[in-house]
């Protein structure tokens, strides 16, 4: 099967200009952080399942409110193991939406119009739920005043909650929602990409096969909130 997502959400580790390791945040945030955590200062630490605990981690951090291409957003920073990426999301009663991403110190910018609905409203996240849509993905390289459009295409996507399972990762044991995410090129139904997510309310993604898929994805090792 041909792959359609190299320009979408897969890491471009081989092209990274440097190996940036995440800063350590030792502050512990106490108290509830919401069904879909988005509070500034939250940190999650991940490793590929086959990595050793002492290996360099990948850290996801909530930087805080900002704007992305003129829209209000919350910036999430994913860094480590040669990666430096910012995700721009909106989190509210209607769920979680991905507006776009920036890679390589904002050299590469990806926009989704309309935003990708990553998660539904809280009450709608149940076993058997399905959601999705169609989005236009535009990827540009920006260097100073020079803008080069790398890709401009339409993608269909679908999320499906397959079930709930008790899983154990280095961060502990959780009863997660197992979610399948499929991306398709409507011009050629044979071109598609599939990913798996494990989500636990109030904590976030326990496992994701989106990034570092060649190493088995990323599993949660630690977090700075209880």
Automatic annotation (TrEMBL):
Please indicate which superkingdom the organism of origin belongs to.
Answer: Bacteria
Q: Which residues form the signal peptide?
A: 1-19
Keywords, A to Z, come to: Signal
Q: What is this protein called?
A: DUF3108 domain-containing protein
